[in-house]
Amino acid sequence: MPQNHPKLPGIEEIGYKFKNENYLIEALTHPSYSGENSLNYNNQRLEFLGDSVLQLIVTTYLYVKYPDTDEGELTKMRAFLTQKSTLSIFAEHIKLSDYIRMGRGEIKGEGHRRKSTLCDAFEAVTGAIYVDGGMRAARDFVVPLIEHFYPELSDIISGFNPKGYLQELIQAKMHSSPIYKLELMEGPPHRKTFTVSVWVADQKLAVATANSRKAAEAKAAEKAIMLLKDNREPLFQIDDMGHH
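User: That's the sequence. What structure does it adopt?
Assistant: Structure tokens below.
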């Protein structure tokens, strides 16, 4: 665990005072800094933990706040609130970019401004707060940010971009990108329908039909997200392929 005491965000930024600041130092230590300084820790383990803590906090929050919303809509809302771009907005708001410890090369390339770096740091800080103060403290860190940026159901739904989120999901798991294929186009010119499939690593994940290609791609992405988030068969196939 870390012993040195760099500049750290205070209660004004994150709304929480650590009993053991070593957790916060670890959460803000990028692997590039750890490698350059021969440290035996970085923020990846806390990021791993924080990801799961965030999922539970957001799921519970949405379940309680929107009792009349069905599972499909709740899943889309959770996907939006836990995606890289959303978490990076939260991280910027609490000025985490000012405190992330990075290697010289990453600093030179402004890595502290990168969405993926900010997202990872936010997840790690969430994990650190959970370890230090428990689930209530972690919830009190995350929920005010959700309510500040997305106070209404419509704010969350309108912001959800299924193709963008699926891209993030696949890149994180496989360092690849989904491919959309037009399977079928039929009907008269004024009433055409488009059937589109979405593929990852030669595997068809989902198929959808709509009255425009763009809408069909979005629907196919939504179906793929549901499959991956529900831990159904395609997720395990992707994990297997991604580790070969």
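Strands lie at 179-186, 193-200, 203-210.
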